[in-house]
Design brief:
This protein has about 240 residues and is α/β, with parallel strands linked by helices. It contains eleven helices and eight strands. Helices cover about 45% and strands about 20% of the residues.
Length: about 240
């Protein structure tokens, strides 16, 4: 009998990409399932109203509901720490652990760990975000010694619209940043339909590509004690130890 791995996934309310992608990934690992809880997120900008969407109290309410499902790990499948600061995810994980007794991780903390494992100090950054959000992300990575040597952003603000970006457009953006030969590339938003493109783009460019839906699945499975090699068709990250 296969072991069971239950992942609790915190999801922005207007996101339509991460749930099907997460479930598709876990279908490659018998016994692994994802269980989702939403909280309100509709806009990504630096306006006060947008920043308040990521107030811990709302996220913790969703985390407590996931705890009722006795999940092995709770993960925030979102990239808000990119512009709010990586310490916000560290605090969130600590608070989730205190509130539920369940370990927690996030897309961004997992991405940062992946960059460290792969020794990447230059990064190609692809997002759907507006310029001021992109600039915050670039600055936060520079502060930890990772230079965004190439970036592309689409100037979008409405979270729902991010999932409407066609995969062919995302492939083109990744190819553009790959031309600058960064040591790693990230598709940085969990409402982009990009995770399924990673394997092909890595083969084409020779550069590791870390999608932020994929990073949190990878780290959550590691926390749960699962081997991730079964998911290797989703990118070389899943072969990392």
């Amino acid at each position: 009998m296969n072991p069971r791995y239950r992942l609790g996934v915190l999801t922005p309310s207007s996101n339509t990409a991460l749930e099907p992608l997460t479930s598709a990934m876990l279908a490659d690992l018998p016994g692994a399932t994802a269980h989702f809880a939403r909280f309100p997120v509709t806009e990504i900008s630096l306006r006060d109203a947008s920043l308040r969407q990521f107030d811990d109290s709302k996220i913790l309410d969703a985390a407590r509901l996931l705890a009722d499902a006795k999940v092995d790990v709770i993960c925030w499948s979102g990239t808000s720490a990119g512009w709010l600061g990586f310490d916000t995810d560290e605090r969130l994980c600590a608070r989730i652990g205190e509130a539920t007794g369940i370990p927690a991780t996030t897309s961004v903390l997992a991405l940062n760990e992946a960059l460290s494992i792969f020794g990447a100090r230059t990064l190609g950054l692809v997002t759907p975000y507006v310029a001021e959000v992109q600039q915050r992300i670039v600055a936060n990575y520079e502060a930890i010694g990772v230079r965004c040597s190439a970036e592309r952003h689409l100037g979008r603000q409405v979270n729902f619209s991010f999932a409407e970006v066609e995969p062919a457009e995302l492939q083109a953006l990744v190819r553009e940043v790959a031309a600058e030969r960064p040591e790693a590339i990230t598709t940085f938003c969990t409402n982009l339909r990009a995770a399924q493109l990673v394997h092909g783009l890595e083969a084409e460019t020779g550069i590791p590509v870390f999608d932020t839906v994929s990073t949190v699945v990878w780290k959550a499975l590691r926390i749960a004690g699962a081997e991730t090699i079964a998911l290797r068709r989703w990118g070389r990250l899943f072969e990392a130890r």
